[in-house]
Amino acid sequence: MASVTVTAKPEPAREPPDRRWRLPGSRLGRLIVALNLLGLAILIGGALVLNELRRGLITAEIDSLNTQGKFIANVIVQAAASGDPEPALDAERARETLQLLFVQGSQRARVFDNQGDLIADSYVLNDRIEAHPLPPIAKPGQFSFHFSLLGAGKQQANAANARAALDAEVQEALKGEPVAGLRPAQNGGRVVSVSIPIQNVQAVLGVLTLESGDVDQIVANQRRALLPFILIAVMVSLVSSFMLSRFIAQPVMRLARAADRVTAQRARAISLPDIAGRDDELGDLTRSLETMTQTLSERMDAIEGFAADVAHEIRNPLTSIRSAVETLDLISDAEARLRLTNILKQDVGRLDRLITDISNASRLDAELSREAPRPLDLNKLLAELADLYAQAAKPGDPPVRFTSIEEAPIMIRVREVPLSQVFRNLIDNAKSFTVLSTEPNPEVRLTLRRSGRQAVATVEDDGPGLPAENLETVFQRFYTARPRGAVFGGHSGLGLSIARQIVEAHGGKIHAENRTGPDGEVLGARFVISLPDIGA
Questions:
Q1: Contact between residue 208 and residue 198 where contact means Cβ atoms under 8 Å apart
Q2: What does each C-alpha distance from 460 to 249, 258, 434, 474, 480 come to in angstroms?
Q3: Is 452 exposed, middle or buried (0-12, 13-18, 19+ CB in 10 A)?
Q4: What is the tens place of the pLDDT at every residue in 245-274?
Q5: Which residue(s) pair with 531 in the sheet?
Q6: Contact assessment for residue 433 and residue 358, using Cβ atoms and an 8 Å cutoff
Q7: I want to staple 510 with a disulfide (CB 3.0 to 4.6 A). Which of 87, 385, 451, 503 is the partner?
Q8: Where are the alpha helices (DSSP H) in 329-441?
């Protein structure tokens, strides 16, 4: 007695949303990069803005000194230049003019003659004392003399650098072109300096140097102005860290705890609907985990059902064997004992076929996962199968004829050994029905054609066909429906079930139908297999 077990088919995994319009890379990856770059961008932007601001302030200071210096230089030429035909600069008048015109503040003005010697200094004229910070007072027991020497040495080095830079600037200005820019100061800082030649027509009588010592103040203000950008960048980093923890780390931890619960409680599925609804990689991962556990659950149910079906199918021949063995000792008639012995042989053969087919079915999943799909010419495979059956044919076997409508190769991506098993099962099944045909010259026909992006192969026989209500039932495990005349127990009912499992594992479909004549008479059965054509 055959049994039919119906198992629920796993729902197909939900397709991820179409992201062709998005930038390349993962959504979470883009979020992490964007949040990390935001704080850096704020710092860089603030530095660039403040750098431009400082540059603008220094440029404005140079322009102001340049305008002021040209005016003072022109007045000095008019008031302090004397002599003809070779004019010279009167040092006393130059000092008086500079003292009269120069307005004190954070600026300093100096006048040099055409030899580069200093003849007037606004600090000297206004009795201004140049202040420098003293070294820190040493505590008792410290080497104050050593620190004093270090401080004095540093001040001397700064003064030497400042003097050398000033001399170089003056010498450059004596060539007749104004010089402007930043140069070292005696206190170790920097000053904005403008050196303007004092000229009478073409003769350079000296150089007027104006300098503004508030560059360090500008830099200090710039650093203070950068503090808000730094604070904003720190806040952005903190917020981004919180967001990464909230939207990535915590959901991942929830997924891990849910997976641990599945392991500890031996649950059949994992469910986190709030995360599964997210439109990012974590949502994809959650949906994949849910689908995976659901598929595993359904696979476990199928295995349980398969085990129950196997126990039931094996019990039938075992019961028959036990009855025959128990009856054998009670029968003395030789002919009856022979019939009973034949029944025992048939049941043993049936049990052997069942165990073999059950073993093949149980190893099918492992075999499908072990071998990677490869491109295969279906034309060539079916032609080789037809040749093998022709070579192994015995007297009385119906011939197997292959016909390909397509001349070009039809390429599919499959596992060759399992797919060959599908066609062998179908051909063997067709031969078992064809031998019962009453038609002259019955045969099994293999046909291959291309339909759109599908490779379609058919296996036809000239047998009595299939009952209309059993066209789908024949693919169930352990289902057998044999016409009269077929050997009882000659088939386990697993061949077509295995064939469908292999075809669907390769993304294809298989179904059964009857061949009919013009008058609706059934002429035989036909099995149709559709597989994706990678060469289409």
A1: yes
A2: 58, 51, 9, 15, 18
A3: exposed
A4: 777 777 888 888 888 877 777 766 666 767
A5: 455
A6: no
A7: 503
A8: 334-370, 378-391, 416-434
Tokens of 47: 């530095």
Give the pLDDT score at 205: 87
Q: Would you state the pLDDT for residue 55?
A: 67
The answer to whether the predicted template modeling score (pTM) of the entire model surpasses 0.85 is no
Degrees, nearest 5: CA angle 437-441-443: 70
Provide the residue type at 313 as one letter: E
Look at residue 459 in the predicted model and tell me its pLDDT: 93
Q: What tens digit of pLDDT does each residue of 383-433 get?
A: 999 999 888 888 878 888 888 887 788 899 888 888 888 898 899 888 888
490, amino acid identity: G
Contact of 441 with 411, CB cutoff 8 Å: no
Q: What is the pLDDT of residue 366?
A: 65
Residue 97: what pLDDT?
Answer: 85
Task: Specify whether the CB–CB gap between 224 and 254 falls below 8 A.
Answer: no
Give the integer Cα–Cα distance in Å for 118 and 373.
92
3-state secondary structure of 503: helix
**Residue pair 87/200 in contact by the 8 Å Cβ criterion:** yes
What phi and psi values does residue 199 have, to the nearest 5 degrees?
A: -120, 140
- Cβ proximity of 422 and 499 under 8 Å: yes
pLDDT of residue 458: 93
Distance (Å, whole) CA 507 – CA 369: 14
By residue count, the chain amounts to 536
Displacement of CA 63 from its chain's centroid (Å): 55
Evaluate whether 527 touches 426 at the Cβ level (below 8 Å): yes
Three-point CA angle 17, 20, 21, nearest 5°: 105
> Are the beta carbons of 456 and 406 closer than 8 angstroms?
no
Residues of the chain with pLDDT under 50: 1-24, 129, 143-147, 485-489
Q: What is the pLDDT of residue 526?
A: 92
Residue 136, preceding bond cis, omega within 30 degrees? no
